[in-house]
């Protein structure tokens, strides 16, 4: 598994080819590509800016890789996440999974996307006619992640502090 | 210790990072957050609603009872919205 | 939704681009590509030949399209299935789904693949050192399809005939 | 009616398709299958284990109680293995 965090765009076909080439054990390849939508939360956006915490993404990778490989027989996988300013229609994120069988490839791709949505340290700011707005996290994304495990070891639990 | 701020937390605090010595009597994430809120209006504003504050100590998500010590990298940020 | 049944290879990148281009309502694109594996059921295969029943595939398409669109908000989708002789590493099948949201895109892609595996009239014959062998259907594929519905209207139920 | 055979059913029967008049007294898929098995060794072999025979009438999967009539296209094949 590899993860790349970059401002540049990516080429899904070239990345897929590089992952799969020459490995005839692979029977199933799933790609997920996330794109910037023109309408988000009912409002038109002209652009989106992604901020991130690179050291933490790197630190988390070994764990997520181990979890994915414990769970599924993957021949190859790749995550690319962009940062910086992106316009509607542009690619934000890519997940590719390759396995002998389709169920493993589908599940691992969904797992990695759920992980990215709830655990990977990226933050989106949308530019609307009313100005720049930070996107709020969705409870539905936490729910999606919860299906993979109870007691996710690096769960970003709410901080509870006794006021005193 | 090195303190990092991201997204609207960074905007409210007004800086992206700073180095501070471990405050006297602070030993865990919860103590650090209480101390942070008293450092000035920007910090108070940033820490006003802790239900939308997440903390990572040395690049790992941390709970309020997790320890902090001098030399740690502690990051404060909203729930993530990537992907 | 479109379905194409063809002997020629396909270009995932070109097909994806054609589906998604200019639609900034799309936030999530999932592609599934099925490849011929060199080892199948523990045996090395040198090639695979796909036979099909074209009129029935066409006739089934309207139904599966209606079901997928009832269930999920899809902006676009495409199925390509090849027939004829294919060698290990070659592409067999492509499913692409595009939706505003990732869950719909993932689920619809899995649904369409489960449908192809259990309902679409294609049959694989593998060439091994022992000669040509027709591939047997897997019960696990029927199980995968069953998760989408009870009483699937065009379920290929076993034929029970009273012997007399 | 038009009868079609696919995959190993086609190989056992020995032909890919044939036109036959609706046999006397046959009104449903089950009746047609019983009649088919009596048409000769290839047909008998093809219809030996009906747990691995699927039938489509006019391009739709059919059960043994579904009707057949003259002019129908009836296809016989093993469980599908595409995708």
How would you summarize the topology of this molecule?
The complex is a heterotetramer, with 2 copies of chain A (164 residues) and 2 copies of chain B (83 residues).
Chain A: E1 2-6, H1 12-20, E2 28-35, E3 39-40, E4 43-44, E5 47-52, H2 54-71, E6 76-82, E7 84-86, E8 91-99, H3 102-118, E9 122-128, E10 131-134, H4 139-146
Helix pairs in contact in A: 3-4
Chain B: E1 2-5, H1 7-13, E2 17-19, H2 29-37, H3 41-46, E3 54-57, E4 60-61, E5 73-77
Parallel strand pairs in B: 1-5
Antiparallel strand pairs in B: 1-2, 3-4, 3-5
Structural class of chain B: alpha+beta
What's the number of domains of chain A? 1
Output the CATH class name of chain A.
Alpha Beta
Q: Could you describe the largest sheet of chain B, including whether it forms a barrel? A: 5 strands, mixed
What does this structure look like?
The complex is a heterotetramer, with 2 copies of chain A (164 residues) and 2 copies of chain B (83 residues). With 164 residues, chain A is an alpha+beta fold. Chain A has a single domain (2-146), classed as Molybdopterin biosynthesis MoaE subunit (Aldehyde Oxidoreductase, domain 3, Alpha-Beta Complex). In chain A, 32% of the residues lie in helices and 32% in strands. Chain A has 4 helices and 10 strands, in the order βαββββαβββαββα. Chain A has helices at 12-20, 54-71, 102-118, 139-146, and strands spanning 2-6, 28-35, 39-40, 43-44, 47-52, 76-82, 84-86, 91-99, 122-128, 131-134. In chain A, the strands form 3 sheets. In chain A, strands 1-6-8-2 form a 4-stranded mixed sheet, with helices on both faces. A 4-stranded antiparallel sheet of chain A has the order 7-5-9-10, with no helix packed on it. Residues 150-155 of chain A have low confidence and may be disordered. Chain B is α+β, with helices and mostly antiparallel strands and 83 residues long. The mean pLDDT of chain B is 97. In chain B, strand 3 (54-57) and strand 4 form a beta hairpin. Chain B is globular, with a radius of gyration of 12 Å. A 5-stranded mixed sheet of chain B has the order 2-1-5-3-4. Chain B has a single domain (2-77), classed as Ubiquitin-like (UB roll), CATH 3.10.20. Chain B has 3 helices and 5 strands, in the order βαβααβββ. Chain A binds chain B through residues 34, 50-53, 55-56, 58-60, 81, 92-93, 113, 116-125, 134-137, 141, 154-164, and chain B through 4, 6-8, 10, 29-30, 33-34, 50-51, 53-56, 58-61, 63-64, 73, 75, 77-83.
């Amino acid at each position: 598994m590899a993860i790349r965090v970059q401002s540049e765009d990516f080429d899904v076909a070239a990345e897929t080819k590089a992952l799969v080439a020459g490995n005839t054990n692979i029977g199933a390849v799933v790609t997920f590509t996330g794109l910037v939508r023109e309408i988000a939360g009912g409002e038109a956006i002209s652009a989106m800016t992604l901020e991130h915490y690179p050291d933490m993404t790197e630190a988390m990778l070994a764990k997520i890789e181990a979890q994915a490989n414990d769970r599924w027989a993957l021949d190859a996988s790749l995550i690319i996440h962009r940062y910086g300013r992106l316009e509607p229609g542009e690619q934000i994120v890519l997940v590719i999974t390759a396995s002998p069988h389709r169920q493993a490839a589908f599940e691992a791709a969904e797992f990695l996307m759920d992980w990215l949505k709830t655990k990977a340290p990226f933050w989106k700011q949308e530019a609307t006619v009313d100005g720049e707005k930070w996107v709020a996290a969705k409870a539905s994304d936490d729910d999606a992640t919860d299906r993979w495990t109870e007691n996710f070891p690096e769960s970003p639990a709410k901080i509870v502090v006794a006021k005193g | 210790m090195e303190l990092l701020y991201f997204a609207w937390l960074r905007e409210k605090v007004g800086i992206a990072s700073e180095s501070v010595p471990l405050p006297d009597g602070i030993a865990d994430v919860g103590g650090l957050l209480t101390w942070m809120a008293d450092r000035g209006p920007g910090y108070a504003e940033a820490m006003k609603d802790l239900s939308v504050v997440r903390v990572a100590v040395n690049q790992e998500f941390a709970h309020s009872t997790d320890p902090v010590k001098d030399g740690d990298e502690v990051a404060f940020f909203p729930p993530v919205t990537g992907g």
